[in-house]
Design a protein that fits this description.
With about 240 residues, the chain is α/β, with parallel strands linked by helices. The chain is about 25% helix and about 35% strand. The radius of gyration is 18 Å and the shape is globular.
Length: about 240
């Protein structure tokens, strides 16, 4: 017997929201089981000639949200992301299955303090975790560090600042590697930055989630372990690129 998460279902695009110049959120009505923060879904597109393309996308919405939110970044020569950005409209249907994934997930029973580290679009599953954390009443101290090339590339920036403002136990920190920023850091994540963040936060994380491109995840995980975080406490999720 197959799991219901392995079955393809039809999802309807309810609305679309621009996140950055290259990322949009697609809010879907989908008959899927309730997800756990940090999980993803598979999307399948089928051309008239029968050709199919499949991609996995992290879920940005909190568990139990009325609509399932996927934040999709436009990739150069990306056939699936190109479809979403150039063709997809509200009312369109797509094939989807999930939720999937059992390692890079968080719920309120997890240990804390909690540190979330995102590179670029790797923030998407961490937004789901941050939203789930807020919905649970902020059960443990939490810090989310988001690194992007430019200030305008910090997807979900306003939503995360809103959680920071509304919840004393949540800290949202940013760094941009190119150009200026009104506040936050303006360089790549390094030992000095991590030491400074942890000192300001006043906690040593008991659990860390790191998501981003391969090179970013590798560097961030090494810095965390060097700072004294147990390797088993560092959960990573990565995608292609450097």
């Amino acid at each position: 017997m197959t799991s219901p998460a392995a079955d393809w279902q039809q999802a309807v695009i309810a609305r679309i929201e621009q996140r950055t110049s290259r990322m949009r959120s697609y809010f879907l009505r989908a008959p899927l089981a309730r997800h756990i923060a940090g999980q993803h879904v598979d999307v399948r597109l089928t051309a008239p000639d029968g050709y199919q393309a499949r991609r996995s996308y992290s879920i940005a919405s909190a568990p139990g949200a009325e609509e399932l939110e996927l934040a999709i970044e436009l990739l150069d020569d990306g056939e699936v992301s190109g479809y979403f950005h150039d063709i997809a409209q509200p009312g369109d249907t797509i094939d989807m299955r999930g939720p999937l994934g059992g390692h890079f997930v968080w719920d309120a029973a997890q240990a804390g303090p909690l540190l979330l580290v995102a590179g670029g679009s790797g923030v998407v599953p961490l937004v789901s975790i941050a939203r789930a954390w807020a919905a649970a009443g902020g059960p443990v101290p939490a810090l989310l560090l988001h690194s992007a090339r430019q200030w305008d590339g910090l997807a979900f920036r306003d939503a995360l600042f809103a959680i920071d403002t509304a919840h004393a136990g949540f800290t949202y920190a940013t760094t941009v590697t190119r150009g200026a920023a009104p506040h936050g850091y303006t360089r790549r994540l390094d030992k000095a930055m991590l030491d400074d963040l942890l000192a300001q936060w006043g906690h040593m994380p008991a659990l860390c989630y790191v998501c981003g491109a391969n090179g970013f995840v590798e560097a961030a995980a090494q810095l965390l372990v060097a700072a004294g975080v147990a390797p088993r406490a560092v959960r990573t999720e990565r995608y292609g690129g450097t």
